[in-house]
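Help!! Second protein's tokens look totally different from the first
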Amino acid sequence: MRTVYLGTSDFAVAVLDRLAASEHEVGLVVTRPDRRKGRGQRTSPPPVADAARTLGVALLQPVDLHAPEALEAIAAAAPDALVVCAYGALIREPLLSDYEIFNVHPSLLPRWRGAAPLERALMAGDAQTGVAIMRLTAGLDAGPVCLQQREAIADDDDYGTLAARLQELGGDLLVRALSERPPFIEQSEEGLTYAEKIGPQDRLLDPAAPAAQRERVVRALRPHIGARLELGDGEFLGVWDARVAVQDADPRLVVAGLELLEVQPAGGKRMAAEAWLRGRGGAVTP
């Protein structure tokens, strides 16, 4: 089967690599435009753009996916189907009607439809998640599902470790879906939840929340976003590793039952919380 692949993130890279290694042809890769990021605000390509160049596949980076020139480029690739994985922009008509579109979604639909299913599953303390292969429709991740497989969430999983397993699973399920063409079955509305995009407030560790809940937030946002703790002096401290405080924890690094292990001061580098505390000369005071 000849495909056009739409994706942007590191997660989408792994799925693209698996698709390209299969019997199915990738005629064109579509990803988001290069953007400025980091302290130096240097222009950098999305991970999928680099992957497409490495694979030697034609690459398209439209500002507007639905502009006539972008639609013409997709049509010129003559795909039998489109594949979408973490593209990062809404896909609408006429693409929805013109092509069969397979979407790789990292959750057990209908739980965690939306932009941040991995983070929300970890934050919620879910015991399991998974990957669904669905047909893209106008509704937000509401299309029928043809394949779905579960994956247990370990107590020490963070976004990085969980995403690594799910992206491999997603690539395998996608290739199976394209090769075997299992029937699509409409989703149930029972158990429906939405995984809203992670915003600034989601990153804040609320001292009033249970320590176990705050520890899950730290893991859910590591290593790609990072949780934050608001200090008493109005500054914010990045928190990359923490645990529910144990009996012999340094009380100066315990915030309402949560022991800080790795932090990042504003404008600084990540470091052991003990080293940060020595330089600060005082206990954490949120």
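Here's the second one for comparison:
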Amino acid sequence: MMIPIHDALLQIFDVEHGACGLLTAPLVGGGFGRLMVDCGHNGSMPWYPGDHLKGLGISYIDLLAITNYDEDHVSGYPNMLARGINIGWMIRNKSVSPQTIKLLKTEDGMGKGIDALVGSLDNFGPPAVGAMSPQFAGVHLEWFNNSYPAFDDENNLSTLLHLDIQGVQFIFPGDLEMAGWKHLLNTNARLRQLIGSTDVLIAAHHGRENGICEDIFDVWGCKPKIVIISDDYKQYDTQNTIGYYNSKCVGITPFRGKLDKRKVLTTRQDGELRFCFQNGACTVS
């Protein structure tokens, strides 16, 4: 189904215990471009990112951001390759080489998504001289990551992506845990500045307790309107964080026609979430 884009559209898909989002926005110079944040899939529906894009007649993604080198963030990547989805640019933690990813995955094994990603990374080397990364009108993006081997676990090597879309500030932190959060904040004045103006925080590590860093709220002033948890049914006791995040949010109303203030949205309960930008306003549905 084609959804009206207007000035920009950000979708956060229901990919169970995983992550996948898609921003569609005008490109500087004309036309629309697309930024995909992770590329997980939903095996129950089923839903795959490549099938979704092809169904819309899309065969090119201007930019793919990989926030974490775990399977649930890239499980749909083989489907994108199989469906002929071409990718122009990639954001990832470049301190982690393909060989190092294989080393990090030795204990748990390489899933099909990670294996396909590792096989593709050599295609995303240094850009050609004079090449310009895609420029989205009304969108500014910045990213931060800890470096290997200072950290040697996939979660704390996550890439934190900050998106400013028409003045609304989003943070996608991958699967950062407390140690990774604290190091990024202590070493990046710019990130500390951005944290305080966050409107929408995607909960790190799919809302599990080890993704919480109290400092972002209590020290650095993060007070988002909403927190989004991208996850399926509760598999672990450590997923019981909705009450904590509720205490840190301002909340929004209405949401899908209901006037009850919502502070935490979850893909497990709310399904796909859409942020529609039109005439300087952002609505969530």
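Reply: Different proteins will give different token patterns, so don't panic. DSSP finds ten helices and 13 strands in the chain.
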